[in-house]
Amino acid sequence: MTAPVDLGLPGLAGVPTTDVKQTKKDFTSDQEVRWCPGCGDYAVLAAVQGFLPDLGLARENIVFVSGIGCSSRFPYYMNTYGMHSIHGRAPAIATGLASSRPDLSVWVITGDGDALSIGGNHLIHALRRNVNLTILLFNNRIYGLTKGQYSPTSEQGKITKSTPMGSLESPFNPVSLALGAEATFVARTIDSDRQHLTSVLSAAAAHRGTSLVEIYQNCNIFNDGAFEILKNRDSRDEVLIRLEHGEPVRFGADGQHGVRRNPSTGSLEVCAGDDPGVVVHDATADDPTQAFALSRLADPGTLARSPIGIFRQVERPAYGDLMAAQLDEAAAKQGEGDLQALLRGKDTWTVA
Amino acid sequence: MTVKHVRELDRVVIRFAGDSGDGMQLTGDRFTAETASFGNDLSTLPNFPAEIRAPAGTLPGVSSFQLHFANYDILTPGDAPDVLVAMNPAALKANLPDVPKGATIIVDTGDFTPRALKKVGWETNPLEDNSLSAYKVHALDLSGITMEALAPFDLSRKDASRSKNMFALGLLSWMYGRSIDGTVTFLREKFAARETIRDANIAALKAGWNYGETTEEFSVSYQVKPAAMPAGTYRNITGNLALSYGLVAAAHQSRLPLFLGSYPITPASDILHELSKHKRFAVRTFQAEDEVAAIGAALGASFGGALGVTTTSGPGVALKGETVGLAVSLELPLVIVDVQRGGPSTGLPTKTEQADLLQVIYGRNGESPVPVVAASSPSDCFHAAIEAVRIAVTYRTPVFLLSDGYLANGSEPWQVPDVDSLPTIDPNFATEPNHDGDGTGEREFWPYLRDAETLARPWALPGTPGLEHRIGGIEKLDGPGTISYDPNNHDHMVRLRQAKIDGIAGIPDLEVEDPGSEARLLVLGWGSTYGPIGAAVRRARKAGHHVAQAHLRHLNPMPANTGDVLRSYDRVLVPEMNLGQLALLLRGKYLVDIVGYNRVRGLPFKAEELADVIMEEVGAL
Ligand SMILES: Cc1ncc(C[n+]2csc(CCOP(=O)(O)OP(=O)(O)O)c2C)c(N)n1
Ligand code: SF4
Ligand SMILES: [Mg+2]
Which chain B residues are Cβ-neighbours of A31 within 8 angstroms? Predict the structure, then answer.
């Protein structure tokens, strides 16, 4: 029942599958979900529980590891193996797990504070190493669990409990950050767009190496409407850029806007949809320059001109695979370890 | 040729000292290796600056290696050198205060220029101003003779003079009847790719030996006969190497793959280096981005069924604290190795201290009991590591394993154990649901349903069907392990976790060595003070005093009879390289008064110093 089957998904190669048909219910734990009513986290949970059965993986070989924050409660609600760890450290913990257990599908659940403040270091190094993980970064641009302080993705000037006169800091753009950290898979999606969310999650799971998925997630209690302009029917077409691999980058209700390269600065800028210079999106390009330029289109404050979709999806050996290969190579070259010989060493003497 | 006499000695302490670039550690290592295979008992103390290449010729740049060897079993690297080999003025000046009058000093005069003397604050040359008249001084131009000996080689002056350490080694080897064969083989391998350097070093080594043999400067050589040791196969081993081997052996004995997460830090890095070599034992080593990630990865690997280990020193332990607390809550096996160094903060990175005891026992938020095991000698690091793993795996708990800078770099002979004689450790993974559930007849898995005897919870690995479960740092309901904020449950869980650690079985009673059973003074130690305390107690006994000695290997929990032992002596003396951390614990736990002897000089205690303290205490009774 649990023999590995080639799913054609490199990210899940080696993970046992099952023939038994699975449903959303199989992935739902008996724990009562305790997010605030209306929280965007519910939609993401539903999407994950809804799409995992399609992968046909043995449920016992899936592990969710999270840090601390509202979003990090996620593993409790999944009927898989799971660890709710400590603030910011999930990528590090998952690195040890994934690189020693290639037969597991390891997911990291984290928030904007968890991943980008306290855990920033672990995030960038997981991306750089390309550990085989799928990281879901729930970005609500606020600290939810601690009741509403600004976060490293909050817009400058934001009024919160800890910034009554407005935040002084420039926000991180998580996609730009991930691209700068040598990530091999970087995507962004939105909690309310189930279809888009699911398609991005599928691609992320299929990718071998670290997949970073930034999910714009509404915190209706402390930062309600943070992504409203990207969601509202009246505004979204004008400000949301849907990236499709191999397609020209256009947006607007009728594709009347496009994105082209400014010949003198080399950066990307908005142009007319029929401009001959409209760039074609290539997520698989080796050079991350255009993906990075696309990530810079968004206004750091309002998020207008935010691209969503897969920015980058390139192949690079995964850390755990390289580690396993070194172990195999050592055993092949020197033979399996012989403990008694190791303890003896070369320079011994005998007392009779 | 002059007639040479051979004089027999019971024991000798030699100290090689030079610039950090002079290769003194290598010289000491090689002399040690030959001495070990000759069959002497020995103990070593490397002492080097934190800077990789402190300015040449300066006092802070002096690096030294002390070796004590004897024809009987010895416990320490020796208080004071009988022979000092000083390769430059700085080495002479820095080490002179430790050299007792009447001792031998062999000095390389090659660098005794007015400039070099001035650099260390000497107005006149001590070799000429009679200030060393209390010592047996051999002032030799070792650099010059080495360069002469290497004239046939196509080497720059600088390269040629680099081999002077090998010349010195050859000379000392002649003086103490050590073979140089092993070092010749060593040099052949080390410089296999650089023939000229290889041959020059071998030539310098032999020249040093021949110099001793032929020159009139030395009329006597010495013999220290092999020590009587229990039959067996021996090797020389440092604490860091023994600790690394202990971890590999424990992984082998528990059939768990070893996963080391580590971030480089002196004096622990060599464990990372060593374990990185043993990939064919399926040892995974992960050099993390920081200490927090290092322990996190180790804990993640433990969750997946590996033997998770992280190695560090005091500053790293401070960073790992929160994750240790998580491991306490998750109740997963994890070994945290703390090779202690001088603190606080960066402190004395290359020097020894044992001031992390309270940090590892108490340095976390909440009631967070963690077992603590401390190694007592370089070779004991091997067995202490296995014991730490036994406790971690059996009781599903993080365990601190304490070593220190002295044990890490110091070495001694080690009787190589037979692998079959090592204890086996049973991970006893959960394979099936363990609870009847809600009456539907379907069995459930409760991740916090404990073993009645050990109070350990089941270790269920991802990949085991039917045992899917979630664990975390939030308080759990006793049994099911689901989140619980219930006040009584929390009180219960806090006590359960404590009871689990307090009840760890297999901790032997504290053994007291009290020949004649007449002692009224007990000297109690822990960790690396074992050797110095033992040597000091021997001295006091030789001087006719009755003294009892005991040493704690388990600092948490302590052996069950500890309180009784303490109370059965009129006075308990606890020497520690801190300001009284064990003493504080003992007073608090057992309500006995403790006399502390505390020094934090970054160096191990000297036997003589401790013997004086012991005799003073005995005298006061
Ligand atoms: C070491 C530590 N510091 C601080 C906290 C308090 N804390 C918990 S969650 C959190 C921020 C969470 O923000 P985010 O990651 O954005 O998650 P969200 O709640 O918004 O989903 C903070 C500061 C903690 N749990 N641990
Ligand atoms: S505080 Fe915000 S993020 Fe947290 S559960 Fe409530 S709505 Fe969701
Ligand atoms: Mg947040």
Answer: 470, 482-483
Query: Ligand 1 pocket, A146 CB below 6 A?
Result: yes
Selecting from A92, A100, A104 the residue whose C-beta is nearest the C-beta of B296 gives: A92
- Please name the residues in contact with A243: beta carbons below 8 A apart, sequence gap of 6 or more: A249, A281, A283, A294, A307, A308, A309, A310, A311
H or E stretch at A331: helix A319-334
- Containing domain of residue B609, as a range? 515-620
* Option in A84, A336, A343 nearest B416 (CB): A343
Average pLDDT, integer, range B390-409: 98
Same domain, B277 and B195: no
First vs last C-alpha separation in chain A: 58
The interface pTM score, or ipTM, of the predicted complex is 0.97
Residue range B415-443: average pLDDT? 93
| Residues B35 and B103 occupy one common structural domain | yes
Find the A142 Cα to ligand 3 centroid distance in Å: 4
| 3-state helix/strand/coil string of B559-619 | CCCHHHHHHCCCEEEEEECCCCHHHHHHHHHHCCCCEEEECCCCCCCCHHHHHHHHHHHHH
CATH code of the domain in which B573 resides: 3.40.50.920
Q: What is the mean pLDDT of chain A?
A: 96
Determine contact: B407 vs chain A, CB below 8 A.
Answer: no
Query: Per-residue pLDDT for B1 more than 80?
Result: no
Q: What is the pLDDT of residue B442?
A: 87
| Residue that wins the pLDDT comparison between B156 and B344 | B344
Q: At residue A54, what are phi and psi to the nearest 5 degrees?
A: -65, -25
> Do B204 and B312 belong to one domain?
no
Residue B157 belongs to a domain with what CATH number?
A: 3.40.920.10
What are phi and psi for residue B8, nearest 5 degrees? -95, 135
Half-sphere exposure of A308 (CA within 13 A, CB side): 25
In a domain, B299, yes or no: yes
* A121 contacts B290? CB cut-off 8 A: yes
| Helix H or strand E encompassing A136 | strand A134-139
User: Nearest residue of A to residue B280 by CA position?
Assistant: A331
**Nearest-angstrom CA–CA distance, A197 and A195:** 5
Of B201, B224, B247, the residue that ends a domain is B224
Q: Kindly report the average pLDDT of chain B as a whole number.
A: 96
Considering the domain boundaries, does residue B388 fall inside one? yes
Check whether residue B214 and residue B254 sit in a common domain.
no
8 A C-beta contact, residue A95 and residue B293:
yes
Task: Indicate whether B43 and B138 sit together in one domain.
Answer: yes
In a domain, B229, yes or no: no
- Same-domain pairing of B417 and B489: no
Amino acid at A245: H
Nearest CA in chain A to B277: A330
- The whole-number average pLDDT for the span B249-271 is 98
Q: Is residue B348 part of a domain?
A: yes
Tell me how many domains chain B contains.
4
CA dihedral in degrees (B563, B569, B570, B573; nearest 10)? Answer: -80
What is the CATH number assigned to the segment(s) A24-242+301-336? Answer: 3.40.50.970
- Rounded to a whole number of angstroms, the CA Rg of chain A reads 22
Asked whether residue A3 carries a pLDDT value surpassing 70, the answer given is: no
Q: Note whether B337 and B457 are same-domain residues.
A: no
Whether the bond into B344 is cis, omega within 30 of 0? yes
B246, B121: one domain: no
B266: three-class secondary structure by DSSP? coil
Cα-to-centroid distance, A128 and ligand 3 (Å): 23
CA distance A227 to chain B (A): 31
Domain residue extents for chain A: 24-242+301-336
Cβ-Cβ pairs closer than 8 A, A with B, add up to 206
Residue at which a domain ends, from B449, B471, B506? B506
Distance in angstroms (rounded) separating the CA atoms of residues A111 and B312: 29
Average pLDDT over residues B134-156: 94
